[in-house]
Here is the input.
Amino acid sequence: AQSVAQPEDQVNVAEGNPLTVKCTYSVSGNPYLFWYVQYPNRGLQFLLKYITGDNLVKGSYGFEAEFNKSQTSFHLKKPSALVSDSALYFCAVRDIQAGTALIFGKGTTLSVSS
Amino acid sequence: GAVVSQHPSRVICKSGTSVKIECRSLDFQATTMFWYRQFPKQSLMLMATSNEGSKATYEQGVEKDKFLINHASLTLSTLTVTSAHPEDSSFYICSASGTSGNTIYFGEGSWLTVV
Here is the structure.
């Protein structure tokens, strides 16, 4: 079975500082990994994905994530946080071979203070 | 880019009635669609997977007779909440996967309130 863990319920950073939102995964085969952001009362917005290739993936709004196979991690990062980045962030995994739905982590609330 | 449209975005219905939520892929053929449910400030829980022209596959604990899913065409899937109860009030989100399967697109979600 596939699963995703987001160990932090909330991450607090000051504007202008770097941010990291952690994610680890577990799949039986090769993973597709995704990050989504959700603003209040809205659907999900796609940030980035890892399918294959370079371990460092660059996505929307200046976000990036690094795929680490040995640590089964896919942490989301941004060099300089903005107040407008404050939202709920979800890591998700999909087992390529199984072709199944995305399975989501519990979500991490990012709060960026000015 | 590809867009998934959900309708209605908000709906209020009375207990005991049924309500239908539509999920459409606007510019691609969605061979597979997924329905999720999300409670406030919680994660998305997969309810069911539907493939065009076949019966939906429901996750454990999801009542298939209560949450009817139909995927009659490559661009439309519907979720019907039958005999709705207040505890069915939630945010329902659909997603769609194209023929390549690599990318999954999400709708904007539908707020259901049962009174």
Q: What stands out?
A: Chain B touches chain A through 22 residues (CB under 8 Å). Chain B has a mean pLDDT of 90. Residues 40 and 90 of chain B are 8 Å apart (CA to CA). The longest strand of chain B covers residues 44-51.
